Amino acid sequence: MRPLCFHPERGHIGRMTLPPDSGRAAPGSAHFEAVMRRVVEGFPERIREPARLVRLCVAELPEPWMLDDLGIDDPLELTGLYDGIPLTEKSVWDGPHPGDAVWLFRKPILAEWRDRGDVALDDLIAHVTVHEFAHHFGWSDEDIATIDRWWE
Question: Which SUPFAM superfamilies does this chain map to (predicted)?
Answer without folding.
Answer: Metalloproteases ('zincins'), catalytic domain
